[in-house]
């Protein structure tokens, strides 16, 4: 494409227009097609086109249909796996994929040969896609922070961003593989199958677990009083603190806006983690919202990395009953953890909880007063 770059310079004047022309001419000289330029322009990502090509492993030369054919998988399976990962359904006839991406799709065929069903691949893809989408956003921001300097022209930004991605990208794959291996190791160590499961050859649908929700008090009001980036910082900090207490048998399941969800097969360990989280949040200072924790015990099932069942719903509702800076548990969770010497309890009354027939007996947890017992 040649000047005057019709449609690419609308609304730009002076230096901004000059920089955009410089960037477009540089991209065209490097072989980016009209279609690539128009797509990137529509998405506001012209400066990131060179880095995108680095990530793809080369220029796009294949359609989705061609990619599926080369990798030996049905197009429907390719699209289903992409959709489960949160990726856009590709136009089968649009050139959108690089040759290097064939290998990744071939792995889908290999998993199918090993007996992994489409439903299982979709379930794995859904969980990985959710986490990796967030990881990609953080990595992109990190690369930008490494790249940006005051006064950079658009072409300079594109060059520097591409160069940084080229340096960082080779380390991402090994890092992710190492992290997955470590998580799988912990999962294997913690996985148990009873005699019935082994005889039936099926994974149990549900098991007894303790579930905790910790939410920030006044978070909604905070969102009306401070800039969005500050609200995001607070939510991100809560996730960091939640991860800090999720050790041993306690696992951080997810964050939901102003709350974190923790699960454990050992109720006492979960209560101790809840108390530790209260202390960590309090240590953030008076300007940081305080936290309250609700814990329930019961039968729940894990699907796609998340948990479902009565104790999940009840623990979530228990947070609204808990005092600020406290840990409130149901009787079932209290009874399961009552003998732990690290904990002391007080009856907090029988409360009505939406969706639960009758009252729910609640107990407030605190650390045992005797330091030696703690």
What does this structure look like?
- This protein has 14 helices and eight strands.
- With 374 residues, it is of the alpha+beta class.
- It has two domains: 1-185, no CATH class; 205-367, Nucleotide cyclase, GGDEF domain (Alpha-Beta Plaits, 2-Layer Sandwich), CATH 3.30.70.
- Strands 1, 2, 3, 4, 5, 6, 7 and 8 form an eight-stranded mixed sheet that branches.
- Helix 3 (49-56) runs parallel beside helix 8 and helix 5 crosses helix 7 (118-147).
- The protein is globular, with a radius of gyration of 26 Å.
- The protein starts with 13 loop residues before the first helix and ends in a 7-residue tail after the last strand.
Brief write-up:
By secondary structure, the chain is α+β, with helices and mostly antiparallel strands. 53% of the residues lie in helices and 17% in strands. Strands 1, 2, 3, 4, 5, 6, 7 and 8 form an eight-stranded mixed sheet that branches.
Features:
374 residues, alpha+beta, Alpha-Beta Plaits, eight-stranded mixed sheet, 53% helix, 17% strand, Adenylyl/Guanylyl_Cyclase_3/4, A/G_cyclase
Mean pLDDT: 86
H-E order: HHHHHHHHHEHHEEHEEHEHEE
Number of helices, where a helix is a run of at least 4 consecutive DSSP H or I residues: 14
Rg calculated over all Cα atoms: 26 Å
What's the count of strands? 8
Q: What percent of residues adopt helix (DSSP H or I)?
A: 40-55%
Q: What's the domain count?
A: 2
- Apparent shape: globular
- Low-pLDDT windows of residues: none
**Which structural category do the helix and sheet elements fall into?**
alpha+beta
First-last Cα distance: 73 Å
Strand content: 15-25%
> Could you give a short account of the major beta sheet?
8 strands, mixed
């Amino acid at each position: 494409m040649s000047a005057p770059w019709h449609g690419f310079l609308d609304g730009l004047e002076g230096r901004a227009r000059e920089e955009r022309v410089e960037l477009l001419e540089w991209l065209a000289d490097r072989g980016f097609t009209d279609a690539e330029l128009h797509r990137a322009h529509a998405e506001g990502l012209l400066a990131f086109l060179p880095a995108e090509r680095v990530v793809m492993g080369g220029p796009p030369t294949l359609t989705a249909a061609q990619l599926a054919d080369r990798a030996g998988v049905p197009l429907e399976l390719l699209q289903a796996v992409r959709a489960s990962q949160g990726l856009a359904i590709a136009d089968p006839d649009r050139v959108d994929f690089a040759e290097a991406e064939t290998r990744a799709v071939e792995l889908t065929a290999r998993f199918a040969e090993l007996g992994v069903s489409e439903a299982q691949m979709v379930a794995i893809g859904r969980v990985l896609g959710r986490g990796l989408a967030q990881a990609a956003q953080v990595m992109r921001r990190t690369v930008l922070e490494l790249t940006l300097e005051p006064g950079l022209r658009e072409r300079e930004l594109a060059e520097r961003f591409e160069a940084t991605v080229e340096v960082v990208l080779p380390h991402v794959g090994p890092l992710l593989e190492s992290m997955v291996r470590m998580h799988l190791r912990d999962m294997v160590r913690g996985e148990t199958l009873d005699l019935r499961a082994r005889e039936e050859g099926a994974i149990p649908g549900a098991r007894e677990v303790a579930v905790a929700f910790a939410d920030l008090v006044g978070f909604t009001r905070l969102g009306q009083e401070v800039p969005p980036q500050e609200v995001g910082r607070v939510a991100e900090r809560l996730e960091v603190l939640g991860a800090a207490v999720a050790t041993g048998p306690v696992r951080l399941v997810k964050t939901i806006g102003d709350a974190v969800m923790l699960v454990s097969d050992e109720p006492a360990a979960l209560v101790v983690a809840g108390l530790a989280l209260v202390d960590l949040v309090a240590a953030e200072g008076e300007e940081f919202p305080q936290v309250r924790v609700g814990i329930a015990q019961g039968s729940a099932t894990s699907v796609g990395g998340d948990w479902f069942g009565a104790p999940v719903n009840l623990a979530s509702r228990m947070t609204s009953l808990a005092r600020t800076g406290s840990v409130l548990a149901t009787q079932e969770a209290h009874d399961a953890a009552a003998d732990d010497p690290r904990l002391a309890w007080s009856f907090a009354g029988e409360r009505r909880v939406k969706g639960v027939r009758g009252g729910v007996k609640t107990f407030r947890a605190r650390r045992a007063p005797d330091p030696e017992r703690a």
